[in-house]
Amino acid sequence: MQILFYTLITLASVIAMEFVAWLAHKYLMHGLLWIWHEDHHKPHEVEGFFEKNDLFFLVFAVPSAASYIIGSAVPGYFPLFFVGVGISIYGLIYFLIHDVYIHQRFKWFKQLDGWYSRGILRAHGAHHAKQEKEDGVSFGLLLVHPKYFRKKKK
Ligand SMILES: [Zn+2]
Ligand SMILES: [Zn+2]
């Protein structure tokens, strides 16, 4: 049954990360750390692949790495290892959905034609409609307001 336990911890961590990411986006990235997030909200006048915003991948790698290290090095803390796995999986999902699918930084796949993919695309589009730090909407990525899933009336 241990495998089930570890699988559950991993899954719970992936889900929890959506909330952590939402909080971090709303209160840190649109707060104190706006200096790193700002260029993600502005038109790209500077040529180049990377944004300052990409620093957040490194920021989120820290709790993940810490979980791996403590989980494998400290006796009794092995379940923490799977929290690290969950954070990594979320990071990968975030990268694939936010950076590849929504922002098309890599042309790996085009518009996905499902109600869910269209809904989260619409929600993130609403988030990007604002170029300022204040009064943002829709900070989540995978869990967004149901209104974004409703079909627009013709
Ligand atoms: Zn933002
Ligand atoms: Zn974005």
Automatic annotation (TrEMBL):
State which residue ranges cross the membrane.
Answer: 6-24, 77-97
Task: Check the record and name the InterPro entries matching this protein.
Answer: BETA-OHASE-like
The domain of life for this entry's organism is Bacteria
GO MF, one term, reads:
beta-carotene 3-hydroxylase activity
**Sorted alphabetically, which keywords does the UniProt record give?**
Carotenoid biosynthesis, Membrane, Oxidoreductase, Transmembrane, Transmembrane helix
Report the EC code(s) recorded for this entry: 1.14.13.-
Tell me the Gene Ontology biological-process terms attached to this UniProt entry. Answer: carotene metabolic process; xanthophyll biosynthetic process
The record's comment on protein family reads: Belongs to the sterol desaturase family.
Name by which UniProt lists this protein: Beta-carotene hydroxylase
Traced from the root, the source organism's taxonomic lineage reads: Bacteria, Pseudomonadati, Bacteroidota, Saprospiria, Saprospirales
- The coding gene here is crtR
